[in-house]
Design a protein that fits this description.
By secondary structure, the protein is of the alpha/beta class. Helix content is 54%, strand content 12%.
Length: 444
């Protein structure tokens, strides 16, 4: 049993390569079935996002499994050649594959460290694989442990607390100024992508009113409808400021749309209630002198970039704190995985001993015709007890040494000494399955 991973991501492959291997949701079932049908592959899972395409599998032979999964990835886009694909692929096995899975789940391997989307994407991939019955004991347990590791990283570090996008940084600053955003209103001057994204963040935090002023009336109306807001022409921007606590400007204009004198009049009409201005435009569309007015707060895109960079550094520090968590979870998972190797050997030894016991009992009963039912039962109990006591020490030693450095040597010695054929796959419900140490159980 060998856990393997073959894939590519934003660091190893450009988007034009990643998009060729991307597996759409409607194609995922067929792709999983083809993966699981590969010779030597007993379990499989496909994680396909905009930034990565990865195949996790359980293979009978590591090298053979790598090659079959590479060919499988190649088959996802017929026009690709292995020569073009190979330089972008990475392949991991055993502990390295599990470590990568845990780091992906915890967003330590993401383009934006700490982003939450990858955890949901992994859950979706896992659920799809389970729905199509392509995972089993090993991947089910390892993905569950990956989700547990990700939960620990998020609760025991601050990896997701600091904004690392300009629009969200502006929103977080607004929250610091107003405390609660539930009773605030926002004015968007311009209806561009960055303004729309910021509005989405603000609405998610409870902003009660959204107004959009733009020269592009049709787009403004569409964006306003998304947030149950109102749309006006650009000439209404200053009048709308009186009712706005947050003003976010993002247009292609080459001059100041918000003037110093306009803001002085507005703040007077608001009876000095504060206004927070965010200027995402380049060139700037808001006169920087408004920062001199009491109860007016202005941040431009350079200010926000500085916040973003500081937050990125903080997330990098938190990522360093997350690595020992990953290491501890990995150690537990590897020990559990090693313990599975002993199960087929224990099962085979138990079955061989039972077969010998039954054969000898049949021979005895056949030879001694005068045995009463009670005597047969007594001999059965004696033989069963004798077998269990003889097997107790070998079983205990195998379980104890399963996750040690010499675990594989003990297993191989048992197979040779007792001439076993442990070809049966481990079953999750097998009575002989070694108990899991307390420290390896999922936390939280």
């Amino acid at each position: 049993m060998n856990v393997i991973l073959v894939g590519l991501n934003h660091e190893t492959a450009p988007v034009e390569v990643r998009e060729q291997l991307a597996v759409a949701e409607k194609q995922l079932g067929d792709a999983l079935a083809r993966l699981r049908a590969l010779p030597g592959i007993t379990e499989g899972l496909i994680l396909s996002t905009c930034n990565r395409v990865e195949v996790y599998a359980v293979a009978q032979e590591t090298d053979d499994g790598f090659e079959r999964v590479r060919q499988f990835l190649l088959s996802l886009h017929p026009s690709l050649t292995m020569a073009a694909l190979e330089p972008h692929l990475y392949s991991y096995a055993a502990a390295d594959a599990i470590r990568h899975l845990f780091r992906v789940a915890s967003s330590l391997d993401s383009m934006v460290v700490g982003e939450p989307q990858i955890l949901g994407q992994l859950k979706d991939a896992f659920e799809a694989a389970m729905a199509h019955r392509t995972t089993g004991l090993v991947l089910n347990k390892l993905v569950s442990r990956a989700l547990s590791a990700a939960k620990r990283v998020r609760t025991e570090t601050k990896i997701a607390e600091n904004a690392v996008s300009v629009s969200f940084a502006g929103v977080q600053l607004a929250k610091k100024i107003f405390g609660r955003l539930e009773e605030t209103s926002v004015l968007l001057i311009g209806a561009g992508e960055m303004a729309e994204l910021a509005a989405r963040h603000l609405v998610a935090l409870g902003v009660r009113r959204v107004v959009i002023c733009s020269r592009h009336q049709e787009r403004a109306a569409r964006v306003a409808a998304e947030f149950q807001g109102q749309a006006f022409g650009l000439d209404q921007a200053v009048p709308q400021m009186e009712q706005s606590d947050i003003v976010l400007c993002s247009t292609g204009a080459t001059h100041y749309l918000v003037q110093y004198d306009d803001v002085r009049r507005v703040i007077h009409l608001r009876k000095n209630r504060p206004i927070f201005f965010i200027d995402l435009s380049v060139p700037r569309n808001i006169d920087p002198r408004i920062n001199e007015i009491d109860n007016v707060f202005l941040y431009d895109i350079d200010d926000l970039q500085q916040v973003v960079e500081a937050n990125r550094r903080e997330r990098a520090k938190e990522a360093e704190r997350a690595e020992p968590i990953i290491a501890a979870e990995l150690d537990s998972a590897v020990r559990w995985l090693k313990s599975l190797d002993v199960v087929p050997t224990i099962v085979a030894l138990r079955e061989k001993a039972e077969a010998i016991r039954q054969a000898e009992m049949e021979r005895l009963i056949g030879r001694v015709k005068t045995l009463s039912p009670d005597q047969v039962e007594a001999i059965e109990r004696f033989a069963d007890s004798l077998v269990k006591k003889l097997l107790h020490s070998p079983f205990a030693a195998l379980k104890q040494e399963a996750d040690s450095a010499n675990g594989s040597l003990y297993i191989e010695a048992a197979r040779r000494l007792f001439q076993l054929d442990p070809s049966k796959p481990p079953q999750e419900s097998a009575a002989e399955s070694p108990a899991e140490p307390e420290s390896s159980k999922e936390k939280g």
